[in-house]
Amino acid sequence: MSILEKELDWKNLSQALAAGAGLEQWCPEVRSWLAGKSVDRVLVACSGGADSVFLLCQLWAFRLELDFELVVGHYNHGWRGEASKADAAFVKALAQGLELAFLTETRPAEIKGATETQARALRLKFLRTAAEDSGCKAICFGHQQNDILETQLQRLARGAGVEGLAAPRPVHIFVGDVPVHLRPLLGLRAGSLRQQLKRVGIPWCEDATNADTKIARNSLRNKIIPELEAILGRDVSGGAARARRLLEADALALAKLAREALPEAYQGKASLNRDSLRDLPEALSRRALTAWLEGCGLLGSLSATGLDGLLAALRGESVTGRQSAGASFVVFDREQIWHEAESKPAASLQAGKLVAGNALSLSTGAVLESEWVPVDEKLLARLEQGKVNPTAACFAVLPPETKFIEVRELKSGDRYQALGAPGSRKLKDCLMDRGLCEKERKLLPVVSLPEGSIIWVPGLPVSDSCRVGSNAKKALRLTYRTGEAL
Q1: 216: which residues sit within 8 A by CB, 6+ positions away?
Q2: Which fold is adopted by the domain 3-241?
Q3: Three-point CA angle 106, 115, 227, nearest 5°
Q4: What angle do CA 436, 441, 442 make, to 5 degrees?
Q5: What's the rounded Cα separation, in Å, for the pair 329 and 338?
Q6: In the structure, how many helices (H) and strands (E) does the chain have?
Q7: Where in the sequence of the chain do the CATH 3.50.40.10 domains occur?
């Protein structure tokens, strides 16, 4: 008998769960925030998995004590066909059994595939929209203690700082009119949650893809972290949870110091005094600059590397400077830092053909170079370790008959499957995810085979169909250099 076929009294089950799992298990930061705020409605993100089912049942049981209404939100990624539909139906039945409003959305059909990061972004966009539409000032997530180390390891690999490593936070307050994110269960382990659900007979959905170690987070959870615990002989998840708390305290203290040291960076000013920024310790200078860029609407247009470079230039000896930030520029001289819109009309990208092994000067002033290289263990290791910057280069295996490749601008309807992605997406959406405005997208060369399939676009990984495998003998190295780098 399936979960949906069972006759379940969700109200009594939730009360039974609450009788043995009280609010004292919640993170104190969440309890304190709720006690001090007037919140009429809370959106509960529920996937149907054990963690979010535990959270929803507990919230319902304590809703009167907490004095707010609940709305249930479920995003269906549609990755598992009928199984995904069954999860959505299960959550809907659970919401109806608790007499709660239920909001859902299914991944648009035109998005055929998405990375983990893109999938999370789609889900978050739905949850925030659902919260706004239903008048919810906060969104509750079922993240628990085991999620902390997984998140930290992924962010370490991306070069995150204190703020990034302090995630996921029990209470995360954002700039602007964005719902607060609450994670009451960060002090509880996954095993404990499941034991408590089993104790009272509450079912949940098991996502079969959680066992797929090709997915980075699953590999960390099922392979890397258990091996780490065995090697170190200690509770690494508990240690990571403590480290997260300490890092959050440090992040809050540094943010307070930065705001006190350079308040104009947080006041939406059109410019900043460069000496004031430069005289601060780098940790405070970085936070103040980040806050100013965010207030100007430019932060999302800068990569981590771009932000590092801008900060280094501002704190260095350069007399003047100008750095692109989307459709604007961050400009500075000896005294001030300001931003200005792009005034010079952008050049257009003319289509051309690149003979494999040669170079092609583009009409935008950039150069695309190509060179055949042997595929050896050193190259494979370099690719495996992610040591190729996709903004500047890629390695591609092409059909043996390939004599030349096409270079053109973005076209309506272009689709592209990134390396390792489960399916293709609109190329325009992939570039928009990087924060590129329309002008920037139009200037990037789309490198494709003569028959039209896309090989690479600078800033994105090589196409999955052109991946370099251990059986390949040679690969075409493509290098993209802009006019500034020539």
Answers
A1: 116, 154
A2: Rossmann fold (3.40.50)
A3: 120
A4: 150
A5: 8
A6: 18, 20
A7: 352-485
In the chain (486 residues long), the average pLDDT of successive 10-residue segments reads 69 94 90 86 96 96 92 89 91 96 86 66 92 95 96 90 93 88 96 95 88 82 92 94 96 96 93 95 96 89 84 91 83 92 66 87 86 92 87 92 90 89 88 78 91 92 92 93 54
pLDDT given at position 303: 79
CATH code for residues 352-485: 3.50.40.10
CATH number of 264-341: 3.30.465.60
Q: How far is CA 349 from CA 330, 352, 360, 434, in A?
A: 24, 9, 12, 20
Helix (H) or strand (E) holding 216: helix 216-219
CB environment 285-308: b (16+ within 10 A), e (fewer): bbbbbbbbbebbebbebbeeeebe
The residues facing 372 across adjacent strands are 476
What pLDDT was estimated at residue 131? 95
